[in-house]
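[job 4471] stage=fold_predict status=RUNNING
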Amino acid sequence: MLQRVARAGWGAEALVFRGCGAELNRTPRFYHSGETGDLELLAHRVAAEFPYAPLLAVGYSLGGNVLLKWLGDPAARRPATLQAAAAVSVPYDLEAGAHYLQHGLSRVYERRFLRTLKSKATRKLRRFPDAYDLRALTAARTLVQFDDAVTAPLHGFANAHDYYTQCSARQFLAGVQLPTLLISAYDDPFLPAAVLRDVDTVAGRNPAFTRLFSATGGHVGFVAGADPLHPGYYSEDRVFEFLAAQVSPFTPA
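[job 4471] inference complete, writing structure tokens
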């Protein structure tokens, strides 16, 4: 996406979630699917640095859940220059998605994510030994168990169910007022197709949304073209076209 907008001469910033960069962050907290504070901080920082530039936002996967929650939360503070957004392969129902990852081919993704998350969480405990229970972390064999052991206690949730209930993007869709493009595939290994059909209905009631829900595309895949050495990327092209059509010069009040 950054390459796509760079070709158009647009500026861009990428938010690296806490703990996802080259080193762990220096406080006990990590990132999670409902943590919108860092996104809000970045948006206002960019808006302050470029006060007359239209601001656009794109979120992928977990980042898409964070973005939609921020856009639909009445308590959030969004810059006046923010004009449009797009969210790709969002896990709209975090609990349904977490349990879906425990079945079939999706287990490959769960095992990979769980391995990296447990490694980071173990390293974090060396610096903050009282942040959560090492035994529960070590015993976690699913993402739900990891969220019960780490995500929930570390970020003030009662348990994984409470975390999923408070942070799933689906419940914030009705509050979104900004023109927003939603791209997802029904074969997404992170989300049951029934959830996406429900989201299609819910989002269809909100005129702010444009929905592109396809039969195939996987999770943040959407690879296009006949030549595997020179692929195209359907989602990036559609996101760019949508945002370019929405953007307009900003006139301060």
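[job 4471] summary: The longest helix spans residues 106-127.
[job 4471] exit 0
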